[in-house]
Specification:
The protein is an alpha+beta fold and 171 residues long. 40% of the residues lie in helices and 15% in strands.
């Protein structure tokens, strides 16, 4: 008996496939981090039934847990559970989506304010939403004022251009 795509029905799977970006793989291969209980046929079935992706080959590797730190007077802590990595060979080429750009603050002051707020929360202080709201309102007002000034400047330059053209026509 051979494997046939689409035979197994999957209803609301409780499986998480995390795509792992690996630039060393050829364009028709994709790496996933998956739960250890899945086998190669499950992986192939899942990709076909959910995403309609034709799979040529599946290779899997099981990674053990990393040993945790042993602190004095405390039990050993496991940092990461074991997982399985699957490298799937597809029938057609696959291109990774572009990486998400990191969030950047408008100014250094904003970044310092945000960091202070986060540390205050971590230290057990309550955040002050009124202060934050007033800060956001002030920023919005400044932006509106800047936009108004830019519009006025554009109108002035357009008016001077129109006047200069009318003066040239009169002479």
């Amino acid at each position: 008996m051979s494997w046939k795509p689409g035979v197994t029905k999957i209803f609301l799977p409780n499986i998480v496939f995390k795509m792992v970006r690996d630039d060393n793989l050829p364009p028709n291969r994709v790496a996933f981090r998956i739960p250890p209980r899945l086998n190669k046929l499950d992986i192939r079935d899942y990709l076909w039934n959910i995403y309609k992706v034709e799979v040529v080959d599946v290779r899997t590797m099981v990674y053990a847990t990393r040993p945790g730190k042993k602190l004095p007077g405390r039990p050993r802590i496991q940092h990461r559970g074991r997982f399985k990595k699957a490298i799937v060979t597809l029938k057609s080429d696959f291109h990774y989506p572009p990486p998400i750009e990191s969030f950047e603050f408008a100014s250094r002051e904003e970044q310092v304010e945000r960091r202070a707020l986060v540390f205050r929360r971590l230290a057990g202080w309550k955040s002050r939403p009124k202060q934050l709201m007033s800060m956001y309102v002030e920023r919005a007002k400044k932006l509106e004022e800047q936009q108004k000034k830019e519009k006025e400047e554009k109108e002035k330059t357009q008016n001077t251009q129109v006047e200069s053209k009318s003066d040239k026509k009169e002479t």
